[in-house]
Write a structure and sequence with these properties.
The complex is a heterodimer. Chain A is mainly α. Chain A is built from 11 helices and 4 strands. Chain A has one domain: ABC transporter involved in vitamin B12 uptake, BtuC (Orthogonal Bundle), CATH 1.10.3470. In chain A, helix 1 packs across helix 9, helix 2 runs antiparallel to helix 3 and helix 10 crosses helix 11. Chain A is globular. Chain B folds into 2 domains: 198 residues, no CATH class; 261 residues, P-loop containing nucleotide triphosphate hydrolases (Rossmann fold, 3-Layer(aba) Sandwich). In chain B, strand 8 and strand 9 form a beta hairpin. The longest helix of chain B is centred in the middle third of the chain and has 27 residues. In chain B, 51% of the residues are buried. The chains are: A mainly alpha, B alpha/beta.
């Protein structure tokens, strides 16, 4: 029981990162950014090359090399996120929502397909140059990488929250999210704000992809699809557009899913997540949390 | 006899009956001209895909519902035959109705909670549904055979013939595709199709014309799903095996790509997209199979970014041909419809009592009362922010009041939705015209007549003659209205090509098509020239003389003065004066509110 709780919390951290990405883009321009899912996968595949590279530069400092790899992959996927916004969203920003959704979806498939063609259609084994010990806590056990995943997820969420809450740029994001027209009047550069938000969402997804693939030791070009669905479920569960909503949704989903393995084999967790999505949309489409204006992004 | 020039021939070839007939002829001749089982096998696949794209086009192209799990219904069809065939020995024919029922039920289960919400949630829900069906097929080994799938279903028979070769499935698939095309085209040409397109364009305008949005969305979602389920059964029979790989998310993506690349909302585009998909996959087969996702995602991006209407864009359905022009005087309102309406004596047609509504911190309307009698023209005036549009929104049902009541023909409207109020004969225009951008003027007006169609989608699909007569009558009626409003010359134009004044009048034409008892006009003269405003005044008086009541909001005092029987002045949500035009305009409170103070 405690073991499942622990696993759920760790997995929840990765859902939270994806949910945050969906949530901030949706909060800003009311678009479900499917492309973000492929950046999760891209992050994992970049780390496949970068982690061993950095480890060879920094022999004996496995954790430093791994942290560096996480950061660099996050930056790169963030950059790709901005490029996606520039090429697949910006030109059609005035088109009907359906065109934007399809364009985002096409980017998702394109990036996945490129990974499949360039790297391999087969799942890849991910090796991490760290001393991945097993620790005991609360009557359960967890690995060092799982701990890193949780710490990374929480730290990034904390960073993002403070960024949105206290920086000038964060205010620009909040202003744009609450009303584009008045944000323009107030002198906010809505275009660059939106690009940066796409970048942040991409970076969060990329980091999440690296952490998950490193912790569980495997990456595949379709790894993002189900996880993306779960990240979205987490965002809806907590309340689309809210940072705390994503956190609450992410961890709640992680824990429920992990607990559900008492009842169902683990390959059915996606069904559990989807069931939650249906129930939330049917009965409480605004999510579990009531969104406050102050933490909307 | 007239001679037919090359231009006339070319124009005639644009008529779907011509190229459709030519395509059908080619399809019938193909097995005789090219009796190769390789070619026929590919042709079979093309037709399976074309049924899928024509079906999905109804969902995505007409109704604008982004279905990312369409292949799930194909899978349900395939596995229905797989399971029933292998476990119970049922035939393909027996499986089809069961598959159709299962598909219908599952589309309702997914559709009802989702279709009420913003349309983008449907995308994610259907994506999830597709994944779940795939996972179920892959993991539920006992029932579905797991990753290996199911095989050894009974070989289908037709007219004593065993269907086990591509050439034999060819005729069955051709028939299914033909039926799909006919049914989907009929739906497009009916009030059902116009309602779908209206929802896709602007669901507020659709609701104001009486379309029950959720019901029609569900109808579209179901109507699309059924084709996937049906052809899924045939697909399973043709392949002689069903396995999860045929139903991955990528397949849903390919069908969607084919629809969008072909041209959203265009049946020939959908077919072309489906054919193209099979042709390209076949070319990539063996050479560069893994590149197909790259090719299709790049093609899809290119179309979305560079040619959003697709390779074969949808064209207008109903067109006005000048030959039908008659010289009799135009009739504004259907006499029959007007006569059939009960003309009871009410104290007032519309009465509003102590209506209040608050938006956040703003009291938009406070205790406003108003009554409008039959065949009256009542104007509501007031400066910006006085609550005029809010009043119209309350009467038409877009906004719910916090207090007060609205009665129409003596019955309370408070429990009725926008679309139900439209059905009672309450029509409205909008401050900025909300015409349907992809429909031409004639079709816009015909869509406005939505409430006068009673037939369901099934009788449209079957092409019942009562429904066809009604469609023809409504079309003639729409032409009459256009003629009365001098809009006939632009009947085939798209709203974006209209002058502002024409756009306004086209909105009024849409209202008249509803055969209304009352029309709520929100600043109809805004942006009109003096001449146009003058003509509009004449038109409003003519409409009134036919027994239609008008509630008018406008800033143009020449119009208000010319047509109004009575005027009500609002300021900051409260009523400051009411009475005859002269009295109200001279009222110190009204002068004060306009000039500030």
């Amino acid at each position: 029981m405690l073991q499942e709780l622990l696993n759920g919390i760790v997995v929840g951290a990765s859902y939270t990162l994806l949910a945050l990405g969906f949530s901030i883009v949706y909060g800003l321009i009311r678009l479900i950014n499917f492309a973000q899912v492929s950046l999760y996968t891209l992050g994992a595949y970049l780390a496949l090359y970068l982690t061993p590279l950095f480890a060879s530069w920094l022999p004996g400092h496995g954790w430093v090399a791994f942290s560096l790899s996480v950061a660099v992959c996050g930056l790169l996927t963030g950059l790709v996120g901005v490029l996606v916004a520039a090429f697949a969203w910006w030109p059609i920003r005035r088109a009907p929502t359906i065109s934007m959704l399809v364009s985002s979806l096409a980017v998702l498939i394109l990036i996945e397909a490129l990974i499949e063609v360039v790297v391999s259609p087969l799942p890849m084994v991910v090796k991490v140059p760290v001393d991945n010990r097993v620790h005991e806590a609360l009557g359960g056990h967890y690995s060092s990488l799982q701990a890193a995943m949780l710490v990374g997820g929480v730290a990034l969420t904390f960073l993002l929250y403070n960024f949105i809450r206290f920086t000038k740029f964060g205010r620009a994001i909040r202003a744009t999210a609450s009303n584009v027209d008045s944000a323009v009047v107030l002198g906010v550069n809505v275009t660059s704000t939106t690009f940066v938000v796409f970048g942040i969402a991409g970076a969060l997804a990329g980091v999440s992809g690296v952490l998950v693939s490193s912790t569980y030791g495997v990456a595949s070009f379709t790894m993002g699809e189900i996880v993306g669905l779960k990240g979205f479920t987490a965002a809806v569960l907590g309340g689309m557009g809210s940072v705390w909503g994503a956190v609450v949704g992410g961890f709640t989903l992680g824990i429920i899913e992990s607990m559900s393995t008492f009842l169902l084999p683990s390959q059915w967790t996606a069904v559990v997540a989807f069931g939650i999505l249906i129930l939330v949309l049917a009965f409480r489409p605004t999510g579990l949390l009531r969104t406050r204006a102050s933490d909307r992004a | 006899m007239r001679s037919i020039g090359p231009i006339a021939v070319a124009r005639r070839f644009r008529d779907p009956r011509w190229y459709g007939g030519a395509a059908l002829l080619a399809a019938v001749l193909l097995p005789f001209l090219v009796p190769s089982s390789y070619v026929l096998d590919i042709a079979d696949d093309m037709m399976i895909w074309a049924v899928l794209t024509v079906g999905l086009n109804l969902v995505v192209g007409y109704s604008g519902l982004l279905d990312l799990g369409y292949i799930a219904f194909f899978a349900i069809g395939g596995y229905t035959f797989g399971v029933l065939g292998t476990k119970l020995g049922m035939t393909m024919w027996e499986s089809i109705p069961i598959a159709a029922a299962l598909v219908t039920v599952s589309s309702v289960v997914i559709g009802i909670p989702t279709l009420r919400l913003k349309s983008d949630y449907l995308a994610i829900m259907t994506l999830g549904f597709g994944e779940i069906i795939f996972l179920t097929a892959n993991n539920l080994n006992g029932l579905t055979g797991g990753p290996n799938g199911l095989y050894q279903m009974p070989v289908p028979r037709l007219f004593g013939l065993t269907l086990n070769e591509p050439g034999q499935f060819y005729w069955l698939l051709l028939a299914v595709l033909l039926v799909a095309v006919i049914v989907v085209s009929r739906l497009r040409g009916s009030h059902v199709g116009r309602a779908w397109l209206a929802i896709r364009q602007d669901d507020l305008a659709a609701r104001a014309s009486g379309v029950e949005v959720v019901r029609y969305k569900l109808l579209a979602y179901m109507g699309g799903a059924v084709w996937a389920g049906l052809v899924g059964v045939i697909f399973a029979a043709k392949q002689t095996i069903v396995s999860p790989t045929s139903f991955q998310f990528s397949q849903s993506f390919y069908v969607l790509s084919a629809v969008i690349i072909g041209g959203m909302g265009s049946v020939p585009g959908a077919i072309a997209g489906g054919f193209l998909f099979v042709a390209i996959s076949e070319c990539l087969q063996g050479v560069a199979q893994t590149y197909s996702s790259v090719v299709f995602s790049v093609a899809l991006l290119a179309v979305i970014l560079l040619r959003p209407k697709g390779l074969w864009p949808a064209s207008a359905h109903a067109r006005y041909e000048s030959a039908a022009l008659s010289s009799s005087p135009a009739v504004l309102l259907d006499a029959e419809a007007a006569a059939s309406r009960e003309r009871q004596a009410y104290p007032a047609l519309l009465s509003v009592e102590r209506l209040s509504v608050r938006f956040g911190g703003v009291q938009a309307l406070s205790e406003v009362s108003l009554s409008v009698g039959s065949s009256e023209i009542v104007s509501v005036i007031g400066p910006n922010g006085a609550g005029k549009t809010t009043l119209l929104n309350l009467i038409s049902g877009f906004v719910r009041p916090d207090a007060g009541k609205i009665e129409f023909q003596g019955r309370s409207l408070s429990r009725l939705k926008v679309e139900a109020r439209a059905r009672l004969g309450i029509a409205r225009t909008f401050q900025t015209p909300r015409l349907l951008a992809t429909l031409n003027v004639l079709e816009n007006v015909m869509q406005g007549a939505h409430v006068s169609f009673t037939a369901g989608a099934l009788s449209v699909a079957l092409g019942l003659s009562a429904q066809r007569r009604r469609e023809r009558a409504r079309r003639e009626r729409a032409i009459e209205i256009l003629r009365a409003l001098d809009l006939l010359p632009v009947a085939n134009s798209l709203p974006t090509q209209l002058s502002y004044g024409d756009e306004r009048r086209c909105e009024i034409a849409r209202c008249l098509a509803l055969e209304p008892l009352i029309i709520l006009l929100d600043e109809p003269a805004a942006g009109m020239s003096a001449k146009e405003t003058d003509d509009l005044g004449e038109l409003l008086l003519r409409v009134r003389s036919l027994g239609v009541t008008l509630l008018l909001i406008d800033h143009d005092m020449s119009l208000v003065g010319k047509v109004s029987d009575r005027v009500v002045a609002l300021d900051r949500g409260t009523q400051v004066a009411a009475g005859s035009v002269e009295a109200v305009l001279r009222d110190p409170a009204v002068v004060q509110s306009y000039l500030g103070g």
